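Milestone M4 deliverable, item 7.
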Amino acid sequence: MTENIYGLFASEIGENFVRIGVEKFRASQVADWMYKRGVYDFNQMSNLSAGLRTKLRGNFSIDFPEEQTAKQSADGKTLKSLLRFDDGEAVETVLMRQPYGNSVCVSSQVGCAMGCKFCASTLAGLERNLTGGEMLAQVQHAQKKLPEGQRVSSVVIMGGGEPLANLDEVLRFMRLCHEPSILDMGYRSFTVSTCGLVPGIRRLQEAGLPVTLSISLHAPNDEIRSRLMPINRKYPMAELMGAAYEYALVTKRRVTYEYAMINNVNDSPEHARELANLLRGKLAAVNLIPLNPVPESGLERSTPERIERFEEMLKVRRITVTVRREMGADIDAACGQLRNSHQKGGF
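Output delivered:
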């Protein structure tokens, strides 16, 4: 059985090569083919001898996911792909082309165990964690979709799954992307999203990488948040906000609070006042998200009028706030919808 080397650093590939009698320096050549040129077949690596290519092929594989299906938004700015790995599991990744650059939304798990009521990713539960290499492949897949000369400029780890429940591999993924011989991306290009795993926030802080923390808050108080997000019963808001405050204090990085606007659930003027009081004086920004409705949830998007009023009430109270510009609403852009549809035979 061959060993997959995709997702390894060049130094790790070299250690594997030495084990079978191949010169260590060959690892940098193979890494260049995989990560810089997007070639995953030893036979196409023309600066390697035919004998070496045969030897590598007999001992190693380069496992890269296959695109099962894809949907592009009508405006051409959003591409959502379903990528299938060798074990048959599939995840979603989204390429978003913005005026300020190209961003990729990466999944960190196959499925999700968190049970948030408004999210399609969690409907079938958690299948498994992704490796750092499988997350890297999502970015490289998106890179291949861009015109020549363009590159992925930022990554948000807020697709399927809970990143902080798979933190070791998420950290490995960001370090792979940061490696000059791979993608050479700065750590400030990354945003890690969590539904509220407090120990994970503290571990991310201890890792010392200047990445942005994004918290899926979605409610201004424990009563509403516990109804929407079961994790709040384990780590209630006082504990979560304390960890987020410390993260901002230590890293000097502003924490983003994601807030899905759900009609008649969390979008009243009183909710806006509560949220402002919760965040006042903190290094924080709020991102209001018009809900991408998931039919199974029974929840509906707030009206434009309620969203606008909510935004204005936060601004008046000097809370930094933006309303997420919709991208890909016409292609089931909510996390998990494409995967779920495919599993049900919708494609």
